[in-house]
Amino acid sequence: MKKKMYQNAAAAHFREHSSIYLFVVVLFLMGVIFGAIVVNSLSFTQKEDLFYYLSQFFGQVSDGHVAAADELFKQSFFHNTKFIGLMWILGISIIGLPVILILLFMKGMVVGFTVGFLVNQMGWEGFLLSFVSVLPQNLIIIPIFILAAALAVSFSLKMIRRQFMKKVGQPMMPLFGRYMVAFAVAILFLIAAAGVEAFISPVLMKSVVNSIQS
After folding, report:
1. CA-closest candidate to residue 198, choices 143, 155, 119, 137
2. Count of structural domains, the chain
3. pLDDT tens across 80-102, in order?
4. DSSP string across 49-109
5. pLDDT tens for residues 165-191?
6. Is 98 within the bounds of a domain?
7. SS (H, E, C) 153-166
8. Are 133 and 206 within one domain?
9. Is residue 197 a contact partner of residue 66, using CB atoms and an 8 Å limit?
């Protein structure tokens, strides 16, 4: 019964905010495309310099000289939690709305640039590397960031309507409570993503790098 109630509440939420979700998904995808395009605008020297550092890193991965798994876990978790935390703060500040959208676009741009650069420099092998190094944790992180951005935008818009348009809607405290719970759940998912990035991705990367170098 409770499960059905939560499913109905989630379905109603997505129906009500479908336009916001569509907008943030499109914005993120635009960031990915823009990041991939930026790769092509780099000069030959810039590409060579970046590829040199990348080769150094792959050499370290192949030799097993990378940060310890627990250290990688902490770095990943704190980095993504700070990002989510910033979105949460921006969502409860009326002026934070455009910054939320900029952050999401930049996240998409970083993903697009990383994948685009690897493919541009290494072809099929670069695609395979991006598949094992970028994709696994981002299968969790990207939906969480998109969800967090949509929730922050939605909450910010409700505050703007209440403050400037004097529209009386739902009481803000229950909304704020649900907003906090949603972000707390998002952080739990980021723990899982950090686990994937720390314990699974390096193993996959090492096997791919070794197969490329052999």
Report:
1. 137
2. 2
3. 999 999 999 999 887 888 999 99
4. HHHHHHHHHHHHHHHT-S--HHHHHHHHHHHHHHHHHHHHHHHHSGGGHHHHHHHHHHHHH
5. 665 556 677 888 888 999 999 999 999
6. yes
7. HHHHHHHHHHHHCC
8. no
9. no
